Amino acid sequence: MKTAVITGAGTGVGRATAVLLARNGWRVALIGRTESSLKVTAQLAGKGSLIVPCDIAQPAAVEAMGRKVLAEFGEVEVLVNAAGTNTPRRSLKELTLEKYRELVETNLTGCYLCVQAFLPGMRARGSGTIVNIVSDAGKTASAKSGVAYAVSKFGMAGLTQSINAEERANGIRACAIFPGDIDTPLLDKRPQPPPPEARAKMLMPEDLAECVWLSVNLPSRALVEEILIRPR
What we know:
Rossmann fold
């Protein structure tokens, strides 16, 4: 059975990805801060899901999570980093140092910690796929996304490139997915959350799950380094 670890699995893209993989025979580890949300995802995904509450911004918590997942699964073929956050007060004028650190530690450092938790096993096995859900804010910064979010997402893009530069010789590949606006709970953290009619024109979490599905199911000889996807 194929195995995957998915962060941010309690809502949005993480949940949609977990459900898609599980319904296609994958065993999935659901990672997130809120256990109740992970339980909802597990119900949607069906039997065989592993729920592991974890704040990925905390190194010790990620280490413990990695040990638990590996003890249960034995090995992990796919890691999907879908966890992310933002803050309503996100402009350079308003952003506090505390919030800046919170966003970077969750969006970027948390992604790095999860990669490091599973890279050794992938290296030893000689295969593995890492998918990082970035944002088009990781291509072009904007006032809409905010400075800390843009910094973290540019960093995720660099992390993805670094994985490919160093680990492709070990059979490991990484894909960065850069979506435009997605209708997820993260929109509620905007200074002015968009109305329903605006959300209806955005991407859906399931659209990103299909991108993940493509990147993990390509033959091992193929590496898709980036996917840029926006609403039509």
